[in-house]
Amino acid sequence: MRGVRDLDVAGRRVLVRSDLNVPLDAGHVADDTRIRAAVPTIELLLDERARVVVCSHLGRPKGEPKPELSLRPVADRLSELLGREIAFGDEQGELRVLENLRFDAREEANDPGFAAELATNGDLFVQDAFGAVHRAHASTVGIAQQLPSAAGLLLEAELDAFANLLDSPARPFVVVIGGVKVADKIGVIDRLTQLADSILIGGAMAFTFLVADGLAVGASRHEDESGQAIARKAMGDARERGCRLLLPSDVVVADRFAADAETRVVPVGDIPEGWMGLDIGPATAEAYASRLASAETIFWNGPMGVFELKPFAQGTLAVARAVAGSNAASVVGGGDSVAAVNVAGVAGDITHVSTGGGAALELIEGKPLPGVVALQGSPA
């Protein structure tokens, strides 16, 4: 697979698929992490005297234009970061950002005609949207089948980081997995019990594991018998494979799902009837931090609690600080986990902060990424 440095771009038009899918607040960029991550590839191409056209999706407009999902505010922020004027939409310039690709339903359908239309914007194509390469869309697969293509700097860095994680991790290799549903991450957990020395479980999925292990969890969110069966299998597989799978020993519970709810810290076996667990407790956070301190490789995906509500963010923030404070090679992926290291102010202490949650999990699971496969077979 070619990299962007392998292309002769001087004087040529280069179409770049970036991942500019960022949160907006009242028409302004609320978090520019992904925009910043797109900058190095764009700067490299401009420095090599290419004319650059950037394309991306934003949100889920369902195939029709929606003003609140226009990429114009994103283009404005990119202009600030680059210190350059940027043309937008049909405007012309040395650097241009196209409107939201998903305003056209043909994007997600990987329509060859739409891919051909997009390809008219470049002589070469650079794929740099790691967060989108697990989708077979016109801008991730179709264009690469029509233009000589290469991986951008961000995509190369992401693939290298996960190759190191999966192929030759220094040990102990400790994984932190959170989020809502075990069923959503069954393939990932199965793969990681084969690779990791320890897996630390948090978030709502922890309660499915606890119920599967025979504990009552009050009104805590958990899955039905099918999800519990997956959890029991994961625990059994971990034991057989010599992987320590750790569950919370205490939790922060609340009488209702609200920022101003009454809260308590209780052992996992003593959750009051009608109360719900919304974060790992301090003893669990300390135990997880201790395990992370001895790690040589760390992968973290998913929050430990309801991170968006302040009373239930402490477990996630404690894990963020523990990952950053370790001497391990660390990879953090997934929107809430990335948000946590940013809120904790420790993103600079993480070895690699991934821009793609879904793509990262599919890569770990061993699934082919259509956007990467397309690059490997693109025209010379």
Whole-number mean pLDDT: 95
CA radius of gyration: 22 Å
**CATH-defined fold name of the largest domain:** Rossmann fold
Beta-strand proportion: 15-25%
Query: For the record, what is the CATH homologous superfamily label of the largest domain?
Result: Phosphoglycerate kinase, N-terminal domain
Quick one: how many beta strands?
17
Shape: elongated
Order of helices and strands: EEEHEHEEHEHEHEHEHHEEEEHEHEHEHH
**CATH architecture annotation name of the largest domain:** 3-Layer(aba) Sandwich
Q: What is the CA–CA distance across the termini?
A: 11 Å
Q: Strands of the biggest beta sheet: in what spatial order? A: 5-6-4-1-7-8
Extract low-pLDDT stretches.
none
User: Share of helix among residues?
Assistant: 25-40%
Taking the sheet with the most strands, its summary is: 6 strands, parallel
Number of helices: 13
Return the structural class: alpha/beta
- Please, how many domains? 2
CATH secondary-structure class of the largest domain: Alpha Beta
